[in-house]
């Protein structure tokens, strides 16, 4: 059995009378690539926020590499070596590409090494020409790529991505898929995504959320073929 | 028993004056998300408008309840057209600009009225309860505050104007989509807010000696009452004014008036720390 | 980076040296001293607001706290060295506690503004009400609205009878400002400073990177307070009296006006803004036609409307357009209202 890097037990999140996540038991193995799907309001984003510490769950527990992180704040979770990308692009628009990625690298490395690694990552992401440009001046796809760079530069062992493909061109998506595979060589990855095309191209295990709970968990092809899933989710979209 | 009655009146008066002080700011903040730091100076101008009118021989109640609100409302209109409308959506810049306007008004008032205390006598005489003296004018303040809250409620809840206003509070672009010019809604709101500030300043003027810097004493109280109240205009105003009014009077009676003032400010800081969304951000959700 | 800081520091020292030497030929050292003090005070707000994005409406609280700490300690001790240090430490600790309360509560910009404003007001009210004889700290009477006069002013360390005053105080204050400016420059070039700017730009992102945003903001806030406290102590030495007006809202407003006019997100903007506007106020003080407050208010309104980034960034960008290269003072100007986004989340 593979080592478990992320585990939740009975994770529940209530907003007033609404149960956004209901008793979610979830487990992710080392270097696993997992997609979370489900219709709007299915609870996948709430689950994501509870795991990253952006929200504190009403009840239930979260473990990362065996350590309980339930009430931790985002910076504590990130300090464990978890790379997080939120749904809305979360970058420093007033700072350059280099500065953005350097700040991420500096958290775990001394300044000089951080600069070195930053340059490497910028090269690998094909952002070399834009290195000194402010992020506010870049196109959406380029900013998304920078944010992936922010996540990748710290060599995380767990990566959490909320809708990384949203609003990207086909070419950008392809490039990003490459980056994700590369990250996956050393890290377990969770991707919250709407875009079925993209999920198919990654072809991983998929966890389907529905009304706050996990509906099923299986390989993408079998999930797509399942009549219940088609009914609750794909039936409306596909 | 007499003491109890006196304390009750004092607490009611304290709540009422907080409501009066904050109403203008609350309307402008609630509707426009503009924090008007010149609010205290609008009140100060309301006070001066009353005094000038009374000295011209106008009946004091007409001066307080009619002339002062209209004068200050018009001043507010000018401020909105010249400055505020260029800064919508820039929250921090509006705060800074209105702080500048507040200094400007303090300076102008100093040039016109001089840096001395002026005042008018209270138009209602006091009476005694047992061995205690009660200021009759306090009842007038309580009455005005009650009428004000009731009026705001009726306007917001029952009239077409209030419907538009509540719509604009929820989503400014919605009102625009329904064909109401946001620019005119904002103009009207700022006029009303300024007029309420003027009214408050006028009604409170007989109780305090007026100096050009009088506004400073009001702004912090108004500010914290509104922010602590949270998103609902009337429920927020009433609940936070109630809380702070009781707190300050309890400390004022048991220690000293200064302790009451400080207790109010400390209570506000603690409250904001515990409930950054304000009282109605947590309780009484969805009320007006 | 180190090398660049070295060159930067050298240029700064040379410029400062020349300015300190020339300025007394034009303006009296007595006036210059207070301009320097105000410059330092503006720098303290410029640091936390311009680089940390912390909207503090009560910087005057730390200024007053520094001044009062100095005065009270100087009366009790009778020698100025320890009081000077205390004037830095006390505001630092006070701001640490206040900052921790605000930033660990994850309060938005506007609330930080409100709370700092209210705290300033509490201090002002309190100090104003201490006229009675029961308000005594050691040998020092707080004196209410009359303030505290007659404390030991700055002396050569260890020698209470050899005072540093007049021209001496001017050179001392100038040296202090240069040292503070060098420290601030070093801080901003260091990872701590760069991380602070990152937090100003996007708090959420920085915390998702693993930075403890609350702790860092608290520390930066306290460092700003320490600088303001030092400025307060220097002011106490210059004025030889401390009064509650140091804590007043008017004083807080002026610090903000200096920063806005000079330019946030620059090191020199606030200092230049403070010196220029304080000198303007001094000149205006000699006429009676227009009230000073009118002018200050007008300046604030006009700057917010027409030159919201302030003078220094405008001059720098003008220079860049004219000559096609970056002038002095690399400015990462603060966009105030984007930083203020999400500050008020009322529906």
Topology summary:
The complex is a heterotrimer of chains A (238), B (288) and C (347).
Chain A: E1 4-15, E2 18-29, E3 33-37, H1 44-52, E4 59-64, E5 67-68, H2 74-79, E6 82-85, H3 97-106, H4 111-124, H5 140-152, E7 158-162, H6 170-184, E8 188-192, H7 196-202, E9 205-210, E10 213-219, H8 220-225, H9 227-237
Chain B: H1 2-32, H2 39-55, H3 60-82, H4 91-113, E1 127-129, E2 132-134, H5 136-158, H6 160-170, H7 172-177, H8 182-204, H9 215-229, H10 233-254, H11 257-274, H12 279-282
Antiparallel strand pairs in B: 1-2
Helix pairs in contact in B: 1-5, 1-8, 1-9, 1-10, 2-3, 2-4, 2-8, 2-9, 3-8, 5-6, 9-10, 9-11, 10-11
Chain C: H1 2-22, H2 29-51, H3 59-77, H4 81-104, H5 109-128, E1 136-137, E2 140-141, E3 148-149, E4 155-156, E5 159-163, H6 167-189, H7 191-201, H8 203-208, H9 213-239, E6 241-242, H10 249-262, H11 268-284, H12 292-306, H13 311-323, H14 336-339
Antiparallel strand pairs in C: 1-2, 3-6, 4-5
Helix pairs in contact in C: 1-6, 2-6, 2-9, 2-10, 2-11, 3-4, 3-9, 4-9, 6-7, 10-11, 10-12
């Amino acid at each position: 059995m593979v080592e478990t890097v992320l585990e939740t037990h009975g994770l529940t999140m209530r907003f007033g009378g609404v149960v956004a996540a209901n008793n979610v038991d979830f487990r992710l193995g080392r270097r696993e690539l997992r997609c979370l799907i489900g219709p709007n309001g299915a609870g996948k984003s709430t689950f994501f926020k509870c795991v990253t510490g952006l929200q504190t769950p009403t009840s239930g527990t979260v473990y990362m590499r065996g350590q309980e992180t339930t009430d931790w704040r985002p910076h504590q979770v990130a300090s464990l070596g978890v790379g997080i990308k939120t749904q809305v692009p979360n970058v420093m628009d007033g700072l350059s590409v280099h500065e953005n990625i350097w700040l991420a690298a500096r958290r775990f490395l001394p300044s000089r090494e951080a600069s070195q690694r930053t340059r490497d990552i910028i090269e690998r992401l094909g952002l070399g020409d834009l290195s000194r440009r402010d992020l506010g001046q870049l196109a959406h796809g380029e900013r998304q790529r920078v944010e992936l760079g922010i996540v990748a530069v710290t060599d995380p062992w767990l990566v959490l991505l909320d809708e990384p493909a949203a609003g990207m061109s086909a070419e950008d998506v392809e490039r990003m898929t490459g980056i994700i595979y590369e990250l996956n060589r050393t890290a377990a990855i969770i991707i919250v995504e709407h875009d079925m095309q993209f999920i198919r191209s990654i072809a991983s295990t998929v966890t389907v959320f529905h009304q706050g709970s996990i509906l099923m968990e299986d390989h993408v092809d079998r999930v797509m073929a399942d009549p219940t899933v088609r009914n609750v989710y794909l039936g409306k979209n596909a | 028993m007499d003491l109890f009655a006196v304390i009750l009146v004092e607490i009611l008066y304290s709540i009422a004056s907080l409501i009066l002080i904050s109403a203008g700011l609350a309307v402008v903040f609630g509707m426009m998300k503009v924090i008007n730091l010149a609010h205290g100076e609008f009140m100060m101008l309301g006070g001066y408008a009353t005094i000038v009118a009374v000295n011209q021989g106008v009946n004091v109640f007409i001066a307080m309840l009619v002339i002062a609100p209209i004068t200050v409302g018009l001043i507010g209109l000018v401020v909105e057209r010249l400055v505020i409308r260029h800064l919508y959506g820039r929250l921090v810049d509006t705060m800074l600009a209105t702080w500048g306007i507040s200094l400007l008004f303090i300076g102008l008032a100093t040039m016109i009225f001089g840096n001395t205390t002026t005042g008018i006598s209270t138009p209602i005489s006091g009476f005694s309860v047992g061995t205690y003296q009660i200021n009759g004018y306090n009842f007038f303040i309580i009455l005005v505050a009650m009428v004000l809250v009731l009026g705001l409620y009726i306007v917001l809840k029952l009239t077409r104007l209030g419907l538009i206003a509540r719509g604009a509070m929820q989503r400014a672009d919605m009102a625009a989509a329904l064909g109401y010019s946001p620019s005119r809604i904002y103009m009207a709101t700022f006029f009303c807010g300024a007029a309420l500030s003027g009214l408050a300043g006028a009604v409170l003027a007989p109780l305090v000696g007026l100096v050009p810097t009088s506004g400073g004493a009001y702004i912090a109280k108004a500010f914290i009452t509104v922010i602590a109240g949270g998103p609902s205009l009337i429920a927020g105003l009433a609940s936070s004014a109630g809380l702070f009014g009781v707190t300050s009077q309890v400390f004022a009676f048991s220690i000293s008036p200064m302790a009451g003032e400080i207790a109010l400010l400390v209570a506000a800081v603690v409250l904001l720390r515990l409930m950054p969304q304000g009282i109605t951000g947590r309780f009484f959700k969805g009320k007006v | 980076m180190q090398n660049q800081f070295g060159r930067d520091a050298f240029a700064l020292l040379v410029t400062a040296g020349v300015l300190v030497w020339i300025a007394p030929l034009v303006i009296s050292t007595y006036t210059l001293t207070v301009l320097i003090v105000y410059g330092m005070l503006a720098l303290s707000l410029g640091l936390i607001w311009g680089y940390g994005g912390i909207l503090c409406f009560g910087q005057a609280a730390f200024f007053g706290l520094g001044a009062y700490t100095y005065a009270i300690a100087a009366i009790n001790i009778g020698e100025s060295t320890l009081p000077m240090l205390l004037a830095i430490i006390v505001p630092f600790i006070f701001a640490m506690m206040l900052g921790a309360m605000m930033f660990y509560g994850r309060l938005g910009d506007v609330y930080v503004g409100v709370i700092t404003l209210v705290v300033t007001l509490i201090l002002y009210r309190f100090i104003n009400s201490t006229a009675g004889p029961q308000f005594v700290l050691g040998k020092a009477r707080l004196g209410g609205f009359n303030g505290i006069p007659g404390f030991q002013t700055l002396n050569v360390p260890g020698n209470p009878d050899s005072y540093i005053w007049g021209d001496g105080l001017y050179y001392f204050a100038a040296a202090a400002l240069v040292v503070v400016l060098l420290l601030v420059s070093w801080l901003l070039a260091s990872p701590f400073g760069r991380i602070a700017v990152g937090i100003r730009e996007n708090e959420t992102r920085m915390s998702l990177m693993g930075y403890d945003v609350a702790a860092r903001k608290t520390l930066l806030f306290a460092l700003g307070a320490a600088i303001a406290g030092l400025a307060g102590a220097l002011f106490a030495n210059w004025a030889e009296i401390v009064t509650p007006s140091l804590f007043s809202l008017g004083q807080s407003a002026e610090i903000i006006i200096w920063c806005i006019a000079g330019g946030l997100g620059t090191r020199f903007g606030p200092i230049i803004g403070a010196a220029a506007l304080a000198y303007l106020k001094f000149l205006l003080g000699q006429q009676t036609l227009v009230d000073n407050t009118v002018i200050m208010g007008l300046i604030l309104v006009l700057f917010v409307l027409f030159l919201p980034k302030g003078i220094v960034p405008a001059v720098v960008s003008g220079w860049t357009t004219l000559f096609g290269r970056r002038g002095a003072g690399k400015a990462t100007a603060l966009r105030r209202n984007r930083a203020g986004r999400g500050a008020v989340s009322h529906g």
